[in-house]
Write a structure and sequence with these properties.
Largest sheet of chain B: 5 strands, antiparallel
Number of helices of chain A: 1
Order of helices and strands of chain A: EEEEEEHEEEEEEEEEEEE
Helix content of chain A: under 10%
Helix content of chain B: under 10%
Number of strands of chain B: 11
Structural class of chain A: mainly beta
Shape of chain A: globular
Strand content of chain B: 35-45%
Number of strands of chain A: 18
Largest sheet of chain A: 12 strands, antiparallel
Order of helices and strands of chain B: EEEEEEHEEEEE
Radius of gyration of chain B: 18 Å
Oligomer: heterodimer
Strand order of the largest sheet of chain B: 2-1-7-8-11
Largest interface: A-B, 41 and 41 residues
Shape of chain B: globular
Distance between the termini of chain B: 31 Å
Radius of gyration of chain A: 19 Å
Strand content of chain A: over 45%
């Protein structure tokens, strides 16, 4: 994982198990805003706030229109008014890698409209706030860390993990999985540990996709932990192969820090 | 080198905010919005007055910043007179946005060189007893740039000074 600054060209956009980065031209703002109107009592020295409810969102995806069956932009997002599991990755001066920042949320897709732009037919896909049935409605922090960059795996993970916060926490978090393909059933999950060694990792309770079969249709989802769940310092991806012998996926964890 | 006086360039500005563990961190900024107190006013003009007149009311002190998205590890803030040592903007802000907690925040105005004690500082030191400090109310990433907004928590006003504020207590 590189650290420091980067270029927008290294961003990636996944939705509902589809990698739409090959169509995406621009991803607008990844927002995290809190209602907070300044006010003051007569004896206060200054107008001040208490932070209210959060509003999350990814603005709009602007992408090249593509009608390729099954995997094209129209196939993936052609039906607006639906809930989408969105994962936006920010590669740090390279393709997204383990440890890089990730923004993930379940959002309402508001539109799918095409227009002409600089000679191209492009689609504008705005997203609204969190879906009413999003599992992570108890969490206001959409930023997390990439635990597994999009790649195929055929065996369990025995490597060390990621130190995303420098300490264990006790206020839960949520995972986001994007399973692009598999040749049978598989479970994608997260393990945590106090020390960053293979033998120290154990399943993070509740942090699992459950059995998924992406052999015909990609799968994606968000799984939220209890709001008081303990998450130890180090995190890593893990898989359990059911009938599948290979799975291509991306996985992130969004640790709550308050 | 001693503190200097006179005019300066924005390149010598520094932005320091306490992180989620209440440790001071300096993050990279490209722009720092208006800094200082801004008072609302009440028009108290009477018909018999020759000119309109008003009284000042309650001040506000929001601060808006923008800069490059950066996930560098957190590091110790540089001391007076030294070149800045930067922590990642994303590393710090993603953990405090919306936490509803007061944090020490300060803008240091270096006068034609790296900021030194004795040169202007605008900010507010965290005070747990009065629940006062700055809180981050908005954190937005657009490509490789971020914007963030801070508002005052509690009833204590930020102020101008000439010394680095501590993380508070």
């Amino acid at each position: 994982m590189a650290t420091g600054r980067t270029h927008p060209r290294w961003m990636r956009f996944y939705a509902d198990g589809y990698d739409l980065s090959g169509f995406a031209r621009q991803i607008s703002e990844l927002k995290q805003e809190f209602g907070s109107t300044p006010d003051a009592a007569l004896t206060d020295a200054v107008k001040n706030v208490l932070v209210g409810q959060a509003s999350l969102g990814v603005g709009a995806l602007n992408a090249f229109f593509d009608n390729t069956a099954t995997v094209g932009l129209q196939a993936a997002l052609g039906s607006a008014g639906a809930s989408r599991t969105v994962m936006v990755l920010i590669g740090m001066r390279g393709n997204p890698a383990q440890g890089d920042p990730v923004y993930a949320a379940m959002l309402e897709q508001l539109e799918f409209r095409i227009k002409q732009e600089n000679g191209y037919v492009v689609a504008n896909v705005p997203f609204g706030d969190a879906d009413a049935v999003a599992p992570n409605l108890a969490y206001t922090q959409p930023w997390g860390v990439l635990l597994h960059a999009k790649a195929a795996e055929t065996a369990v993970n025995t490597a060390t993990g990621v130190d995303d916060f420098g300490a264990a926490t006790t206020v839960g978090g949520y995972l986001c999985y994007e399973i692009f393909s598999s040749n049978g059933t598989v479970t994608v999950k997260i393990q945590d540990a106090e020390t960053n060694s293979n033998g120290s990792f154990a399943d993070l309770s509740g942090a699992t996709s459950g059995s998924q079969d992406a052999s015909s249709t990609p799968k994606a989802g968000i799984v939220a932990l209890a709001r008081n769940a303990t998450v130890r310092r180090y995190l890593r991806w893990q898989i359990v192969l059911g009938t599948a012998t290979t799975v291509t996926f991306a996985l992130s964890f969004h640790r709550a820090t308050y | 080198m001693a503190a200097q006086t006179g005019r300066t360039h924005e390149r010598w500005n520094r932005f320091v905010v306490a992180d989620s563990a209440d440790t001071l961190r300096e993050i990279p900024v490209e722009t720092v919005g208006d800094v200082g107190l801004s008072f609302d006013t009440a028009d108290v003009s009477a018909l018999q007055d020759a000119i309109k007149n008003m009284v000042s009311g309650m001040p506000g002190a929001p601060i808006k910043i923008s800069g490059p998205l950066d996930n560098a590890a957190a590091t110790t803030v540089a001391a007076s007179g030294n070149a800045p040592t930067l922590s990642g903007s994303h590393t710090v802000l993603s953990a405090i946005a919306g936490d509803n907690k007061p944090h020490t925040l300060q803008v240091l105005i270096g006068i034609r060189h790296y900021w030194e004690t004795g040169e202007p500082v605008f900010g507010l030191q965290r005070a747990t007893a009065s629940n006062s400090g700055y809180t981050c109310t908005k954190y937005t990433v657009n490509g490789n740039k971020y914007t963030a907004e801070f508002e005052v928590m509690g009833g204590v006003a930020p102020a101008w000074g000439t010394a680095l504020l501590t993380a508070g207590s």
